[in-house]
Design a protein that fits this description.
278 residues, alpha/beta, three-stranded parallel beta sheet, 11 helices, 8 strands, 46% helix, globular
Length: 278
């Protein structure tokens, strides 16, 4: 069944197709730079067995994020792009190419395009691990806090002091949105980046999210850099903060890295990255 703006089957009578087993989005809705929107509400289709979005930038459109949330198997359009290129190459060169090349090229392209996103409590090592990981993989490291400072035109402590945390969180969402539109980055986020659902979706949409789950006593024994406003309230407040955020880190992350100690954490992330690319 083909759904169009007008005609017998259109967006006004989708309910008649609630028995659909597979949905394919062949529209540009949700494509970069107009991300965060979906052409259809998947909850209308209780018998869905699969969702395909022909869009491949971003790697996870809102439609695919919705499918993942409902535990429906899904895929983006990168497979189709590669298979299409393979057919075109055969047509123009007259040379037969083994279908196995499609999977190999797809994996390489997916790895090149998607970001590696690091989340976790302040002081868990996101910046340090991110820098070493970026160097090892030949990628650019970007720090979300530095992007916030650049966009706001003032330091993070100044934003907290002059404007309050709510304004800081607004700048944080803008920064994550900008970073998510880029490719092949290692992104180190702030500890509270997961507090907003919009932010969690932005992070998941931009690439593969790794939670650096460092024990709290390790974090508390670290000499913090100055300018971390939420880590100055003492042990009890930090423990409460960590308990609240663990649930959000777990919900946002694709992979959890327990006790992330430099080289071990980098090796773990690299191993997962090579075997489980988006």
């Amino acid at each position: 069944v083909v759904i169009s703006r007008s005609g017998e089957n259109n967006y006004e009578n989708l309910q008649r197709h609630e028995d659909a087993a597979v949905i394919v989005n062949a529209t540009p809705v949700g494509m970069y730079p107009n991300t965060g929107v979906s052409p259809v509400d998947l909850k209308w289709f209780p018998k869905l067995e699969g969702v395909l979005d022909v869009i491949y930038n971003p790697a996870r459109t809102q439609l695919l994020l919705d499918a993942e949330a409902l535990h429906i198997p899904c895929a983006n359009g990168l497979w189709m792009l590669v298979a299409q290129a393979k057919e075109s190459a055969e047509y123009f060169t007259g040379t037969s190419i083994d279908d196995a090349a499609i999977a190999e090229i797809h994996a390489n392209l997916a790895a090149q395009m998607a970001n590696i996103v690091l989340i976790g409590m302040p002081g868990c090592g996101k910046s340090t691990i991110g820098a070493l990981l970026a160097d090892k993989l030949g990628r650019k490291l970007v720090d979300a806090d530095e992007e916030i400072t650049r966009l706001a035109g003032k330091s993070i402590p100044a934003i907290f002091a002059e404007d309050g945390e709510a304004v800081f969180r607004d700048w944080e969402t803008k920064a994550l949105s900008q970073l998510g539109k880029q490719s092949a980055l290692v992104i180190a986020t702030g500890g509270g980046a997961v507090l907003r659902e919009d932010n969690r979706l932005l992070l998941q949409r931009s690439g593969t999210v790794f939670w650096l789950d460092r024990p709290l006593f390790d974090i508390m024994s670290t000499d913090f850099q100055t300018g971390r406003p939420l880590l100055t309230a003492g042990r009890e407040a930090l423990e409460r903060l960590a308990a609240e955020r663990r649930v959000l880190y777990a919900a946002c992350a694709h992979h959890r890295i327990a006790k992330p100690l430099l080289e071990q954490a980098i090796s773990q992330i690299e191993e997962i990255w090579k075997g489980a690319r988006p």
